[in-house]
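Sharing a chain and its predicted structure for anyone who wants a worked example. Both blocks are below, sequence first, tokens second.
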Amino acid sequence: MPVVTFDYNDFINLLGHKISKDEIINKLPMIGADFDKIEDDEISIEFFPDRPDLASVEGIARASRAFFNFEIGLKTYNIKKSDIVINVEPTVNKVRPFVVTALVKNVSMTDELIASLMDLQEKLHLGLGRNRKKVAIGVHNFEPVEPPFVYKAVDPNTVQFVPLTKVESMTMTEILQKHEKGTDYAFILEGYDKHPLIIDSNNNVLSYPPIINGSLTEVTPFTTDLFIDVTGTDKKAINYALNIVVTSLAERGGQIYSTTVKYEKETVTSPNLNPVKRKLSIKYVNRVLGTNLGDKEISKCLKKMGYNVTIGKDELIVEIPAWRADILHEIDLIEDVSVGYGYDKFETSLPKDMTFGKELPNRNLYDGLRNILVGLGFNEVSTFTISNEKDEFEKIGLKIGTRAIIENPIGEEYSCLRVGLIPSLLKILNENRHHPLPQQIFELGIIVDEKFKNQHYLSAIKIDAKANFTECKSFVDAVMRDSGTKYTIKNFNHPGFIKGRCASINSKGKEIGFFGELHPIIAFEIKVDLINQ
């Protein structure tokens, strides 16, 4: 979870009200946080990742004003109109189709603001932005550039500029190969022959999203006017990111100016801080929370969480702040009602019925298998059941087959449920490839089979310079013997294994597994001689 570190005195200045450090420590976690550490006036607090608006001290101060009853209800910001236009060319549609921008003037670049802005930008990149794949934020010194701006896709070999932290001009291709940020994020643009670029009316490069800004617009302690661009693949996400950044700057005294974004078929004004209205059933709130709250009580709880509320017949009309990316459903509003009401006010009770638990079927077998593998020198790991087709099939030489597909995944790496354990273990080895050999790991975990049923699978891998088929068979013999299972082996062909060094495990006339030496062609960047499965 994101950890936000700030100075107590800076927080009080942003809050605009006096509150003791002890009261902050006692009450602030009720919003949905946990203190990481407190050293003198430096406070580190860990917030749940579903609240990106609390990823900065400015956002925490805004939420605290309402939560501590200093300024309840929806915070509003004055937005002035500018004549800045950014024209979006259709060439970006295939690579990174959306952009929103804003101008914030009269910013005082204090040490606290610089540190907070940089930290907020990176937290939004990692969380809301999915490591810049979904959202990337550029913050620029507005003074040296001249609108209108253009957002377009270009051949990366034809455009060059001086990127941040460098003094020499580089082509976009060279940036991907030589610049630290280029090598870190080149994977996002892999496979595209044209890359996104933002330029001004004089063809000066502002940004090469999602990689790096140009050095021309580098922000310095003397910068007063900031131009912000947010590009990405998700319209809602980029708007939330922009709203969070500009309102954080406004909390520091900056003046927000709107800009015009012109697409081929539509024109939008950004940022858009108009609240979204949603109906909330009073009956539904009380049914979920087990309470008997009236409309005014629920309204008070929501205003304490930073909403505006209009009371209607049997329902409330709730105005949701434009920076609250976590509100997707009525139940999210009900959660905030419970926070505003106070978890300490809910009555607790003991279970009315006595029940007795028992072990799940096959639990003794699973525990026994774990003990056997540990006894053979293997370390147990536990990995994610969510995976993707590339890891589950393509990287181990299989054609994409039947799998449980995740609808609306948060990213390409989380597109299906795993169908086996081999890719999960290979990823672990990949992450630990710089550590000494041998490495022996196993997992007894759940996969989803071709009938979309959960099944427990056991898989183990040893990586060593001297690993071979004979040693692998000895491990299989030990597991089967100690588990009391009679078995035979037969020659088996698997595209991920070396031909002639792979065998199936059969028991009671049924194939129950396979083992052997993985083929060097597997695409998991593990530089070793042999791997046993």
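Comments welcome. DSSP finds 14 helices and 27 strands in the chain.
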